[in-house]
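note to self: the first set is below, dont mix up w the second
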Amino acid sequence: MQLDKIDLRILAVLQQDSSVTNQELADQVGLSPSPCLRRVKALEESGLIRGSVTLLNQNMLGLRLTAFIQISMDRHTPDRFEVFEREVMALPQVKSCSLVTGQSADYLLEVVVEDMDHYQELLLGKLTRIEGVTGVHSSFLLRRIVDRTSLPLEHLI
């Protein structure tokens, strides 16, 4: 999909606040509401806009512990990875899971839990019991320095 400057402005605004009304969005990008809505629909249909979410305050929900977990697997086979990924997707505490390279681990997980007791329960009761998991290394978040949900768009201008 070929993006123009108006499309990029639409994306920038929506990345900051997806709850903006179509009228507000149109005003901010310099369009009338109908063409603005058509552009948004086209961006959605192209797959560039994957969806909209509401971001919650994890501390206010009692999820005060964030851990970054490196997981090592015993074998690097599609069936082993498929089992692990299916099991991890079913765990609501897992905020993200990435297959990585360049380190001793195969997967990098970000998990959020209430406290260390719940972390231990997740780690020992679930993650280490997944078939093929041979190593786990955990690091704990002290403070977030950058916490963006938006992607950079400057390279497209």
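second set (the one i keep forgetting abt)
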Amino acid sequence: MKTNRLGLLSVLMLVVQLTACNSDKKESTVKTTVTPPIPSISFDVVATHLHDTAAFTEGLLMHNGKLYESTGSPLEMENTKSVVGIVDLQTGKIDAKVEINRAIFGEGITFLNNKLYQLTYEAKVGYIYNARTFKKTGEFPLPGKEGWGLTTDGTHLIMSDGTDKILYLDSVSLKPVKTLLVQDTNGPVRNVNELEYISGYIYANVYTTNYIIKIDPATGKVQGRLDLSALTRSARSQNKNALELNGIAYDSASGNVYVTGKFWPNIYAIRFSY
């Protein structure tokens, strides 16, 4: 019995050794996958212009050679207004063409098919204006959580709602026809804010950060990122009340992109590889 027990023990020890050896071999063949970081997009500041430090910036865009800005109006900030107008780059002042009740809170804007479209924050409604006279011609219900950023690819209205979603709206019915989920290497990217469509990609501010991300409209994946921390620091050094980076406007004539933020003292013209 003793001999049998010793033999059985030897067999068990051999099985354990073989199992451990096979386990080591399996572990040695497992490849470690390293997720590449989001590529950084370098940029140059080519010009600095004045900006109204009372403007709570929600949208920025170029249209017919003029820079338009949309502002919001937090009720706790009594001097703010919800307006849409043309920015005088010499003074930074906004020549208001549209002003809505400040309790409504204006958000992103875009032009499409001779119309100006404006989102609102929590009212769940968008406004439509004649692009030449700025007379209000209609309203439409907003899908999604809230109204944040707005742009166009020339066919659809493209809006963000403060989540990781970007919604495409039909230009006639103004109903959603596509939802894009924004993702980087860490997963969903939330707080997608002000939008601009540049050379086939969607560029977006990420609310409360100093980043502008480049989004592939076919997949929703982030393809690159601009870090504008230096511009944010510059704005806050000049105006202690300066808040988040917000506002992207592409000038196809010059190739420059205008960026600014809420209560920033400057609008910066930057240039980078799209």
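remember for set 2: Residues 48-272 form a domain with the Neuraminidase fold (CATH 2.120.10.30).
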